[in-house]
Task: structure prediction
Amino acid sequence: MLKLLGRITSINVRKVLWALDELGIGYDREDWGLPLRDPKVPEFLALNPNGQVPVLVDGDFVLWESVAVMAYVNEAHGAGALMPQDAKARALAMQWVQWQSTEMGRHWVYPLNALVRKTPGFDDPDKLAKSVAAWAKTMEIIEGQLAKGMDFVAGDRFTLADISITLGLHRWFATPIAHAPMPASEAYYRRMMQRPAAAPWLTAATP
Ligand SMILES: N[C@@H](CCC(=O)N[C@@H](CS)C(=O)NCC(=O)O)C(=O)O
Result:
C-alpha cells in the first residue's frame, strides 16, 4: 500500500491526493507538517531533507516534490491515464503543472498567510498588495487560457494540469481579496468540482 505523508491543508499534498483518488489508487495517509506534526525531525528529514510535505513512500522507494510524486503515481500505478501519450500534448500539460507550482504558487504565500491563516509577521500592507497584484496577473493568464473554450486547461481531456490549476483557482476564490470577474475560470472551476475525486479537496476547510 502506498503511504503519503502530509497534512491535507497543504495544496501540494492535495495535488497528490486528488491524483490518487482520480486514478482509484488506494493509499494510507499520515498527518505530517506544521502545526500537526513537525517534519523537521530526524525521522522525517531522513525521508525528505527539505523537511517538507508531501512525501510518498512506495515500499522502499521514497519520493518528494509534489509534481514528481503526481507524475510517478500516474505512471507507476495509474498506467499514465492522467497524461496524454503524445509528447507535445504531455509537455503542454506539464507546462501548466510546473507553472502553477512556480510562477503562480509563489504569489499566494503572503496573502494566504496574512488573510487566511493569520500567521504572525505577515502584516505588511505593501507586501500584501504587491503579492495580490502579482497573483491576480497569473489568474488573468489562466482566464485567457480557459477562455479559448477547451473543456480542460491543456486541451480536450483531463490531465494532471487540471488538478494543479483547479487547486490554484480554489485558493484564489477562498482568499478574501477582490476577485475580478473571470467567467471562463469560474465555469471551469464549477465543472471540476463535479468530479467525485475532486470534491473532497476543494472544500472551505482546505483553502
Ligand atoms: N516544492 C515542494 C514544496 C513543498 C512545500 O512547500 N510544502 C509545504 C506545505 S505546502 C510544507 O511542507 N511546509 C512545512 C510544513 O507543513 O510543516 C513540493 O511541491 O512538494
